[in-house]
Amino acid sequence: MSLPGAWIEGVGLIGPGLSDWPTAAPALTGSAPWNQAATCVPALQVLPAAERRRAGLTVRLALATGLQAVAAARAEASRLNAVFTSSSGDGQNCHEICVELAGTQRQISPTRFHNSVHNAAAGYWGIATGARTASTALCAHDGSFAAGLIEALLQTAGRAHAVLLVAHDAPYPSPLREARPIPDAFAVALVLSPRRTAAALARIGARLTPQPGDAMPGPLEALRQAIPAARALPLLGLLARAQRGTTVLDYLDDLRLAVEIEACT
Q: Which of 111, 136, 140, 129 lies closest to 64, judged by CA?
């Protein structure tokens, strides 16, 4: 099964030792070393003060990465449909709610409650950018990036405007960390357009395949396996090389996603 193709116009990336796409691309091609360091999420000024106080790491990570991609694409954020995908959502907020429910008072604050929904990042995105376009929130465990990419490609087909895809994951604190050991935060964002424009970096096509997923070279493979959103790394490595090629991304246990990239010249 083949999916509709699209044009990649902008990329955002924040992860361990990866602060943005321009500085990360050399490490993904092997032309520069990857210096592993804790993920640093920049401060967000696009949210009103009250929302900035309420937004947790997961929301800040998703928005910062999405804004990187939108800026690179020179797109208008308020006009983009958006697809947010995450295997875990806000792990810290989930932990705090569990702590409250395990106590005697069991009083959940409104802020905790509205941050607990899986589409919290999409809601904050609308507040930050003024977007009133459609947004989708997905979860497919370790295959969440591939599921989000499939959704974004399908949404891009036949649309007048580009679609933003944001895949993001952040760690749980203990004791949930022992059940779902995500070691650090990672997010990737792509702006996908139905037609080629001056901002286009590459054309992307995809199809479902039973072939096994591709690994990353060197220490980046451990990062790919450790954080679900980092399953996007083989695609990003192919894109960073600015050549034509195909890579296979993890998706379901018995079905993966083969992605073809053809760089614009």
A: 129
Q: Which CATH number fits domain 2-201: 3.40.50.720, 3.40.47.10, 3.40.50.620, 3.40.50.360?
A: 3.40.47.10
Residues in contact with 49: Cβ distance below 8 Å, sequence separation at least 6, in sequence order: none
Ordered by start, the domain boundaries in the chain are: 2-201
What distance in Å separates the CA atoms of residue 46 and residue 67, rounded to the nearest whole number?
A: 10
Burial 78-102 (b: 16+ CB within 10 A, else e): eebbbbbbbbbbbbbbbbbbeeeee
List phi, psi (to 5°) of 62.
Answer: -60, -45
Could you tell me the pTM of the whole model?
0.96
Q: Which of 58, 173, 78, 172 is nearest to 119 (CA)?
A: 58
pLDDT in tens, 164-206: 999 999 999 999 999 999 999 999 999 999 999 999 999 999 9
Sole residue written with tokens 């004791």: 175
